[in-house]
């Protein structure tokens, strides 16, 4: 297969008519250029230049092959330029995989920032209902970056983004709405909005009650974290949800647990790709929402 350098020399001679002018254009010596042309002709088994005293002309074979040589040279130029743009974070694609509960609370501000600073970088967001599924997606190469609570098993890079508080979401007229904070014992005799058995938060809620020697009573289950908070706001019953799962204008009331409970939110990455790590740095700078900023009374 002809080398790219040989094709560059061939197209340069076709453009500048002489080997001398083509060598100056490419920044190489005339003998070096002639060597590349000779090697190309040997590889192809046909002469592409008719060398004369006053310059070089393309042979019939050279004229036939020139458009294809130009396509190769142009493609290399486009590839190099695109690579420079990617390296400079001017263009690219980033696949972000999130735990359901953190998408609404963590990503919007960072995505708005990226849209302004990196308008040609496309970000694809996918969601899973557990941290382990997020970790599996990054491990399999289906995502460049995972954002989730700490998974049970992960051997890649982990960057802590902050501590996510678990709060009690409820209707405005709920009896507990007048309290500044809610002890877990006050929820034990209430019918709760809970999560389906396959949802990661289902295990967290059950384990939290069990550790306190309590048992939760369930009135409805949902597989969507944000839906649990919205159902609680209608008066069906309180819900224990991550603060990051609440919309900015939550229609209900949010109160902290007493004592406070929560979990670390981390970014999971399998490579040190500049685009990925820049996004992680922005997530760290943005931080995890705190209750005063999200609370609606």
TrEMBL record:
Which InterPro entries is this protein grouped with? LysR_HTH_N, LysR_subst-bd, WH-like_DNA-bd_sf, WH_DNA-bd_sf
List, alphabetically, the GO terms of the cellular component aspect.
protein-DNA complex
Where does the record place a coiled coil? none
Do the record's keywords include Oxidoreductase?
A: no
The record ties this protein, via Pfam families, to: HTH_1, LysR_substrate
What GO molecular function annotations does the UniProt record carry, in alphabetical order?
A: DNA binding; DNA-binding transcription factor activity
Q: Which SUPFAM superfamilies match?
A: Periplasmic binding protein-like II, Winged helix' DNA-binding domain
Keywords annotated in UniProt: DNA-binding, Transcription, Transcription regulation
**Gene3D superfamilies in alphabetical order:** Periplasmic binding protein-like II, Winged helix-like DNA-binding domain superfamily/Winged helix DNA-binding domain
Q: Which residues form the HTH lysR-type domain?
A: 2-59
Q: Which family does it belong to?
A: Belongs to the LysR transcriptional regulatory family.
This chain belongs to which protein, by name?
DNA-binding transcriptional regulator, LysR family
Q: What is the lineage of its organism?
A: Bacteria, Bacillati, Actinomycetota, Actinomycetes, Jatrophihabitantales
């Amino acid at each position: 297969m002809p080398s790219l350098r040989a094709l560059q020399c061939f197209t340069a001679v076709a453009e500048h008519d002489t080997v001398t002018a083509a060598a100056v254009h490419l920044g190489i010596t005339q003998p070096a250029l002639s060597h590349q042309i000779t090697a190309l002709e040997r590889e192809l088994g046909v002469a592409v230049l008719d060398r004369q005293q006053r310059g070089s002309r393309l042979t019939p074979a050279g004229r036939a092959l020139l458009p294809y040589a130009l396509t190769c040279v142009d493609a290399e130029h486009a590839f190099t330029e695109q690579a420079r743009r990617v390296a400079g974070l001017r263009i690219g694609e980033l696949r972000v995989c999130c735990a359901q509960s953190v998408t609404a609370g963590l990503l919007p501000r960072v995505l708005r920032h990226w849209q302004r600073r990196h308008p040609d970088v496309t970000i694809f967001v996918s969601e899973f209902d557990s941290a382990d599924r997020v970790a599996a997606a990054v491990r399999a190469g289906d995502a460049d970056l995972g954002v989730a609570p700490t998974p049970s098993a992960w051997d890649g890079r982990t960057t802590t983004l902050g501590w996510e508080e678990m709060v009690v979401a409820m209707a405005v007229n709920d009896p507990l709405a007048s309290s500044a904070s809610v002890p877990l014992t006050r929820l034990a005799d209430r019918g709760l909005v809970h999560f389906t058995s396959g949802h990661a938060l289902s295990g967290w809620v059950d384990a939290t009650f069990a550790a306190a020697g309590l048992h939760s009573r369930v009135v409805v289950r949902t597989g969507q974290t944000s839906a649990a908070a919205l159902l609680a706001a209608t008066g069906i019953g309180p819900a224990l949800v991550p603060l990051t799962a609440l919309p900015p204008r939550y229609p209900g009331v949010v109160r902290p647990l007493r004592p406070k409970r929560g979990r670390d939110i981390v970014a999971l990455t399998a490579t040190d790709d500049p685009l990925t790590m820049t996004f992680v740095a922005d997530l760290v700078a943005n931080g995890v929402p705190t209750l005063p900023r999200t609370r609606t009374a």
